[in-house]
Amino acid sequence: MNTVPGPSARCAPPRRGSVILIAGGILFVLLLLAGWFFQFMVMQNRLTHRQGQQRISTSLAFALATLAIQKIQREVVRDPASKLARYLKKPLSSLGDLPAAADTFVRLDQGATDLSPILREMVEPLSHLGAFSYEIQYSCRGSDFRPLRDSAYTREKRGLIHLAIATIFRKTGGTTLELREEFHFVTQVKVTAALVPILSKFTLYVEDARESSDVTDADASFRLNVVSNTATGNRTSPPDGLPWVLQNGCEGDARPDHLNDWITSRRGLVYLGGGRLYLNAARGSNPFGEFAEGFHFFNSGRGDGLYVFRKLQDTYLLNWDQGVTVETSGGGSRDWYDTIRESRWAPYLRKSSALRPYGTDRQPSPTIMLGEVYRSYIRTRAIKHTNPSSPYHFRPTFLTHQPAHDLTNWQEFISPAHAGERDNIATFNQFHLPSLFPELTQAGVNLPLTGSPQDLTIYNEVLASNWDRTPYNRSLAMIRANNLAPRPWVDLPEGPLKALMANPPNTTLVHAIPDALRPLTSAPDLKSMRALLQSLGIPGDRTAWVINPTAENRTILDCLKARGLAQGNTLDLNGWIYVDDAGDLRLTQKVVVQSNGGIVLKKGNIMIGHEISTIGPEAHLQLVTLDGDIIVDTNQKVQAGLVAHKGRVRVGAGGRGRITGAVAMSRFDLASVQQGVDLVYDTALGVLPGAVAEPDSEAPLLSCSVNPTPWFLK
Description:
Layout: H1 16-74, H2 83-88, H3 116-123, E1 131-139, E2 146-147, E3 157-171, E4 177-193, E5 202-206, H4 218-221, E6 225-227, E7 244-247, H5 259-264, E8 269-272, E9 277-280, E10 307-312, E11 315-322, H6 331-338, E12 352-353, E13 355-356, E14 359-360, E15 363-364, E16 369-370, E17 373-385, E18 397-398, H7 407-414, H8 421-431, H9 433-436, H10 438-442, H11 453-463, E19 466-471, H12 474-480, H13 496-499, H14 507-510, H15 529-533, E20 543-547, H16 549-552, H17 556-562, E21 566-567, E22 570-571, E23 575-582, E24 585-587, E25 591-593, E26 597-603, E27 606-608, E28 612-614, E29 621-625, E30 630-632, E31 637-639, E32 641-644, E33 649-651, E34 657-661, E35 663-665, E36 677-681, E37 702-706, E38 711-712
Parallel strand pairs: 5-8, 5-35, 7-13, 7-36, 8-16, 9-17, 20-23, 22-25, 23-26, 24-27, 25-28, 26-29, 27-30, 29-32, 30-33, 31-34, 32-35, 34-36
Antiparallel strand pairs: 1-3, 2-3, 3-4, 4-37, 4-38, 6-12, 10-11, 11-17, 14-15, 17-18, 17-19, 21-22
């Protein structure tokens, strides 16, 4: 059977080219991805390496900034010739900018503080990066600086020091490769003066020298009179108290006629608060005794000190003022004391004051005394008639003080029936007294005096030799007149200075803060030490360091050493330190002060048992306790300002020493006269607030405290 054959089956051609193309594309993509990944990994590795290098460079730059700050603190700001020191001491108003320049580089390997060994140790692990070098430059911008809060001193301020730092690693070989990194740091700086506003202007400030609010308490008014001296003003043998002798500065300068000229000079002032005080002046003669104060009186050291108190025709009433002495039982001193022996004030007139506020006859040191303070002395009175032909003539005689309750003696004293010396008194009483004292008659007193007890009282209080007291500042006029005029204050021009000599003085005026010092404080007057210390600003804006010895389990000195502020027997504060703790500061070894600064204790005593000296004219130390005493128990010099807010600055039995500075305290310790002290005012402290001219300013007292921790900007 024949069949018809169908179409034959055909096979599709193979697609080998497409497979190859696809495979190749995939492989290409994989290779491309691998390349990208490799490149990414290389870049990441480089980035990681680069970041590591940057971290190393940044850490190195931070270390360089820290070392540079130490160099600036220890050397640059101390060098008066450095641009930075001169810049920081300018008044804020004229500060401007301090640009980086060729002479603002800081070298760590030069000068007294060589920090290159520390730097070598730092860069040695990085030696594989190449040879290392650096550049450090400082600069300042005036816009970064601000005044300290409530400060009236034109140069006190706070601000920033800019540090431009470059780190450089250089590899040499076939080619030279250099890696240079630049950084910008700033650090804080505080410029303060080593003085206590207001109080540092006083050689001696005592808030309450009287220690009694009872205005009738005579013992309180005379309490400072505890020193025995001979008739020539020398110490007794054995000594019975030795005074504090003040040297207030400017001893060789002219004595001004105006109060403001006294205040604005570099003299230290004196303030004794608490109420009325009588300071007995020590008797003196020529040659001058060690502690004599004859300069208070007319014609002192020249013999006759009699001067006319009142005169009518040929009749004279004369005074002779003289200081006190404990020698009242023999010689001329006894005769002198006998004229007032019966006065109720006589027991107070044997010992002189614990203070010599105006120095001594050997070196007078006048200044302004503020407070209700009187110079106290014996006023011997005499009568004289110069017309021997008069039927009412009498011979010169002293008017001795009469026993207050012995009427028999009084009646004999004034009776014309008695001859001899008392007849002179009787003649004066009968024929001269009524016309010499018309104001007594006007006051209802019948003259001549009779033998009544009332007239005895009038005689003793008005006519007789007695105790006298006058405002302390009158001695300024006496010294200015070289003791050649009996009442020189009357010739002074009218004004505030003469007002301080008024008797009695204006109690508001004698406690007032002088106008030139008024910008320093908001306190209403000088009476409150607490109010005056508000302007210290510590704790507060003027503080450079705050330490807490208890928290650190260290002494105060060890805390200072840990911060580089003390080393061995050297204090290098460069600013104000506040001890925020209760504890004592003991300075039992010699202390050398290298820079301006101060230490303020929150609570505790400051004990000084050895010398404190300073290096150079720009090293001043202030020691302040806000609640405690300062005890100076050494016969060595102590160059420091001392302030005891709630306590006393006491002088121990370690011998008579010398304090150069300014002393302020709440109360005066009478035991401090056992040895006494020479208190010399540091005239560098007598600066004026707001002074722009450098000679009148606080520039020599400035310290620049640089924060040791830099801030990284970029």
